[in-house]
């Protein structure tokens, strides 16, 4: 692992949490394993963290890669930089890599993290080797938007109750046995933290969400899904066939427009492919990342 003078090891029950001062602000992250650097970027939603998204698959990847799990600002681990956390996330990857002295990485991005990975690959093509996305990119073609999972997320954000959190968590998976009491309690604790909840409302409150959609519709720039032809990195799109947050038809545009893209669909699987289809996900992604 890199010897970085700016980082400090912090007490953490989740693992070896570190922090580094970047040109964008202080960011926290995990640094596990040895080998070529592999950056994991988490999604959005109540109580999400990078560690919770990727801790289950970390052992399989840390044997071959130096795994860097970045915690985006405003999700309860790295400090809130203000503004819209999903917008802020787009600008922190390059400063993070600069601060660690890492020139080039492969990226695994879940949902929002996949969008950040796409954006990084477009604007910093020399920094991204291979790119893996897990649902969440593209746009609805046949399914209505916002999706069922996003509507449930909005309802929780507007009026956070345990029942609404459970409803949203159930929409994330095909097998609802994954939504254990332990998972619910873990997510509830962070999702209802006042600062984290305030950041979530800047993303998913009904007024804020509608304003963001209108801004994207009227802005004098292409929509994110309309720029995916600029991705030069070899890309593996992974998707749960039964995703109720980012339905499978969203994969059609990135699959067709990213020049060097392939698509792997996991059956009986929702939005968390790396959790619900763990063994198959590890097999497919490791094969892609280590392919000659």
Automatic annotation (TrEMBL):
GO MF annotations, alphabetized: hydrolase activity
Keyword Transport: no
Keywords on record: Hydrolase
Residue span(s) of domain AB hydrolase-1: 37-277
InterPro entries referenced in this protein's UniProt entry, alphabetically: AB_hydrolase_1, AB_hydrolase_fold, AB_hydrolase_sf
Record has Cytoplasm as a keyword: no
Pfam family membership, one: Abhydrolase_1
Annotated SUPFAM superfamilies: alpha/beta-Hydrolases
Name of the molecule in the record: Alpha/beta fold hydrolase
Originating organism: Mycolicibacterium komossense
Highest classification ranks of the organism: Bacteria, Bacillati, Actinomycetota, Actinomycetes, Mycobacteriales
């Amino acid at each position: 692992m890199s010897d970085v003078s700016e980082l400090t090891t912090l007490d953490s029950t989740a693992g070896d949490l570190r922090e580094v001062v970047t040109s964008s602000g202080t960011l926290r992250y995990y640094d596990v394993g040895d080998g070529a650097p592999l950056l994991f970027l988490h999604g959005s939603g109540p109580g999400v963290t990078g560690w919770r998204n990727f801790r289950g698959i970390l052992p399989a990847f840390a044997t071959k890669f130096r795994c860097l799990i970045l915690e985006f600002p405003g999700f309860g681990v790295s400090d809130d930089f203000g503004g819209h956390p999903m917008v802020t996330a787009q600008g922190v990857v390059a400063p993070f890599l600069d601060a660690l002295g890492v020139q080039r990485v492969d990226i695994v991005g879940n949902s929002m993290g996949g969008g950040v990975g796409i954006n990084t690959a477009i604007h910093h093509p020399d920094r991204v080797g291979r790119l893996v996305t897990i649902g969440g990119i593209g746009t609805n073609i046949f399914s209505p938007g916002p999706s069922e999972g996003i509507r449930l997320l909005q309802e929780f954000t507007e009026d956070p109750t345990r029942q609404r959190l459970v409803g949203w968590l159930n929409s994330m998976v095909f097998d609802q046995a994954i939504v254990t009491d332990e998972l619910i309690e873990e997510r509830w604790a962070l999702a209802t933290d006042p600062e984290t909840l305030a950041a979530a409302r800047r993303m998913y409150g009904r007024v804020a969400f509608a304003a963001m959609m209108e801004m994207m519709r009227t802005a004098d720039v292409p929509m994110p899904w309309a720029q995916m032809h600029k991705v030069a990195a070899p890309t593996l799109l992974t998707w749960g066939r039964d995703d109720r947050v980012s339905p499978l038809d969203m994969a059609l545009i990135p699959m067709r427009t990213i020049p060097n893209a392939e698509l792997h669909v996991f059956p009986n699987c929702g939005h968390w492919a790396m959790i619900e289809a763990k063994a198959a996900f590890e097999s497919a992604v490791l094969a892609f990342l280590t392919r000659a």
